[in-house]
Amino acid sequence: MAKMRVFLTGGRGMVGHNFLEHAHASGYTVYAPSSQELDLTDYGATFSIVQNFKPDIIVHCAGKVGGIQANIREPVSFLINNLDMGRNIVWAAYNSGVKRLINLGSSCMYPRDAKNPLVEENIMKGELEPTNEGYALAKITVARLCEYLTRENSDVFYKTLIPCNIYGRYDKFDAKHSHMVPAIIRKMHDAKINGLKVVDIWGDGQARREFMYAEDLADCMWECVSRFSDVPQYMNVGLGYDHTINDYYKACARVTGYEGTFVHDLTKPVGMNQKLVSVQALEKWGWRAKISLEAGLRETYRYYLEQ
Question: Which residue, 41, 97, 214, 307, has fewest beta-carbon neighbours within 10 Å?
């Protein structure tokens, strides 16, 4: 029997790498063109390569991603690039006759003042967080396009997973583009190496965040591929619990061996006070994350040292 054909975008990114390295990948024929092989902002090229591969399912992970500093600094590129890539792969899938697609959204899609934990029905129910609004608008638009096409054509099923914040191997650790966890890991490591006795934390450190290890997300994604018909139109993928930013600094300090103290810079932006996704639908569907924060941080730090 021929293996199911999976077309993956973003295979060189953190989520894509973990998806490709997962044990389940060996049971499928996976094609994951690099950005050099396929420019997803070019619709013609995207349509041609999808039509030629003839996938049974598309998993869309590609995107321009970054932490709060990058999102504040470059809202135009976060909006345009993510919108173009998402629109092109979804529209190319539709026009090539691909009936199944998994689109990766983001918890940034939720309103800034939505009640936590964030339930899937709250999307588009309020004002977005200004510090990452461009990225969120792009993600919402692509998710809605998937929903509209599914609604208009009974033969098409394009669904959106909404992960909480993700960290892990293949993450970005440079100061300009990294998310919070890899930024803290590098900060703690550099402080230890340079003998710094004090490290600053943006804000008072009481804002709460939910970070899941990328290998767990990859596991859930493969489960969605294998049980696609049961996946809801929108489904959060998260832990169901969170930690304060102070907690993440302390955990990263333990993992890296940093023994100094912390000071809070109250002049810096912190974004939303809390961003915790509801996992009620996820657990009802039958999946739960397995990797603890400390274990995930240890593996991520080991990866950083190897690089």
Answer: 307
